[in-house]
Amino acid sequence: MYRLGEGFAYCCAGSHAIFLDLTRNHYLCLKPPLQAAFSKLVERKELNQEDHNQLNNLLNVGILTQDIVASPLTPPFVIPAMSTVRASKVSSFSRPVLKALLQRMSASASLRLHGLDQTVKALKRLKEEIRFQGEIYAPEAEAQAASAFEATHLLFSANDRCLPQAIALFRSLLAARHLPLLIFGVRMNPFSAHCWVQSGERVFCDSAAYTRQFTPILII
């Protein structure tokens, strides 16, 4: 019996199985013989000895582990985003924008000091705490957060926007007792990864059409 290893997430992007190694913060794609064996495992088809030999490679690196009880290897799913939370123009020196800037810097520091794996675990714990307290839906708080983080874009390069901003925005919304989704996604040909915050069918500080190009690999 196989199940996904601790610290890994996966999805199927087209005909490719993609894995996110949270501990090392990198993505992996399977070569054809291993891809075929893994596909049979996911589809719950009968495995022959060659398939098991191939899957041993995933066991050796911790992507798969063996268990007495079979665990379905089901990739995450989210309703595709159709719109963006409307952001208003605000002063770059307003208190909400300065707070968003500090939150982005804090998210970057957390990733550097603790790594992606520990950061994700902390976010999961925080979300469960808010879920236990009870969600409070306030559209004005969503709009304020979207406006504040949108205003910080000019201060960061495009390469530095995605993950720290999404984590900071996610934390900000949790602090307001919202329960949004933090979504990691991938696409192929060429390979690229993206991270965004979504509530229902709406995304924050991002293009809904752009996020639909990515297949979710991890959802918090």
UniProtKB/TrEMBL annotation:
Pfam families with a match to the protein in the record: Transglut_core3
Residue ranges occupied by any Microcin J25-processing protein McjB C-terminal domain in the UniProt entry: 139-218
Domain of life: Bacteria
Species whose genome carries this gene: Sphingobium phenoxybenzoativorans
InterPro entries found in the cross-reference section: McjB-like, McjB_C
Name assigned to this protein: Lasso peptide biosynthesis B2 protein
Lineage summary: Bacteria, Pseudomonadati, Pseudomonadota, Alphaproteobacteria, Sphingomonadales
